[in-house]
Write a structure and sequence with these properties.
By secondary structure, the protein is α+β, with helices and mostly antiparallel strands. It is 35% helix and 16% strand. The strands form two sheets. The chain has a four-stranded antiparallel beta sheet with strand order 3-4-6-5, with helices on both faces. It binds zinc ion.
């Protein structure tokens, strides 16, 4: 919860014409270059916050215990360096509108299509199996995107 609170109020700064907070930049820097490129493209459409890139053991243990992640260290794609997974959320009026779930679906569509444009295959936590049948998704992790092999 502390992580969520910390990033709920976002101070966005213009970076090469795009908005990204310093915390987001730090997290993004821990991600695979392909994820960095996807984020860069997505920023042409929407403001966003990078919540998490790479996760060390302590943080992964916390995520697992709290149920935010189903995977124990070091099985998550967040646990490699650079990270093959990224957690990110859309931003509006400098906040993440957590209650506006449809915006997260819209955002995921933008992210996935940006990835496809540059040949990066992503798996999204709102559609793990890529069925486009969201009611069948067993574990909703709407901020999670990872490189699909
Ligand atoms: Zn994640």
């Amino acid at each position: 919860m502390t992580i969520t609170t910390e990033i709920n109020k976002v101070s966005l700064k213009k970076i090469e014409g795009k908005n990204l907070s310093n915390r987001s930049k730090e997290q993004l820097a821990s991600c695979d270059i392909r994820l960095q490129k996807v984020v860069n493209l997505t920023l042409d459409f929407m403001d966003l916050v990078v919540i998490d890139g790479h996760r060390e053991k302590k943080e992964q243990d916390e995520y697992f215990k709290s149920g935010k992640s189903r995977l124990e260290w070091p099985k998550s794609k967040h646990n490699v360096m650079p990270s093959l997974a990224i957690d990110m959320a859309p931003v509006r009026n400098l906040i993440i509108p957590w209650e506006e779930v449809t915006l997260f679906y819209y955002f995921a569509g933008a992210v996935i299509s940006c990835a496809k444009q540059i040949g990066v295959k992503l798996r999204w936590g709102g559609d793990w199996k890529g069925l486009h049948d969201f009611k069948k998704n067993e574990f909703n992790d709407l901020t999670h995107f990872e490189i699909r092999d």
